[in-house]
Amino acid sequence: MGSERRVWLIRHGETEGQSSIRYHGRNDVPLSDEGRAQIAALAPLLAGVDFCQVVHSPLLRAAESAMILCGLLGISDRLMRVDGRLQEIHFGDAEGMTREEIDAAFPGFWDDYEAGRTDAFPGGERRAAFAERVGEGARELARADWQGDLLLVAHRGTVKHAISALLGLEQAPAVGFGVELASLSVMREAPGAWQLDLLGMRP
């Protein structure tokens, strides 16, 4: 193989819909001013990296985060592309709610969900289907013919499952996985396998 391959994974910043406390999956909420500032603050961590491609979720909060970073880093729009598989999980009837609001609207849901008795939010996408969707996208990227550095901009669940897929884990670690808003994780392809070099760094 030629040059070393790395995937830089960014989770979008805070949104107008309060991503820090609300379950926004397919809700297409834009970044807030705070979120834009958070993403801009990540740019120095990426300075000097020669990205060959920027892949992002089609949802506004991820697309805008990618555009901000590309603008600040001088990355051409021609290197950007959308991949629908990188969208966040669909929270169904619980979209946009806080944990407390979900508990009030769907009594007993959290007990069933955390005990593994249900695999989806009410009316939402199954966790297994979400993991497979993201994993398929991540594995396809890994097989693709590119060299150098790739920037992936998406969501917490997407970043978590993409990392898990590249590491070859059968099941993703616990929810959260150290992927906070506007954080950076880095994976590097070592001989025969991918390894995680950095998880959830924030400026």
How would you characterize this protein structure?
The chain has about 200 residues and is of the alpha/beta class. It has one domain (about 5-90, about 125-200): Phosphoglycerate mutase-like (Rossmann fold, 3-Layer(aba) Sandwich), CATH 3.40.50. The protein has helices spanning about 35-45, 60-75, 100-105, 110-115, 125-145, 155-165; strands at about 5-10, 50-55, 80, 150-155, 185-190, 195-200. It has a six-stranded mixed sheet with strand order 3-2-4-1-5-6. Strand 2, helix 2 and strand 3 form a beta-alpha-beta unit. Helix 1 crosses helix 2 (about 60-75) and helix 5 packs across helix 6. The model has no long low-confidence stretch (mean pLDDT about 95).
Helix content: 25-40%
The overall number of domains is 1
CATH topology, by name, is: Rossmann fold
Instruction: Give me the CATH architecture, please.
Output: 3-Layer(aba) Sandwich
Top CATH class: Alpha Beta
Overall spatial form? globular
Strand content: 15-25%
Task: Give the strand order of the largest sheet, numbering strands 1, 2, ... along the chain.
Answer: 3-2-4-1-5-6
Overall mean pLDDT score?
93
Helical run tally: 6
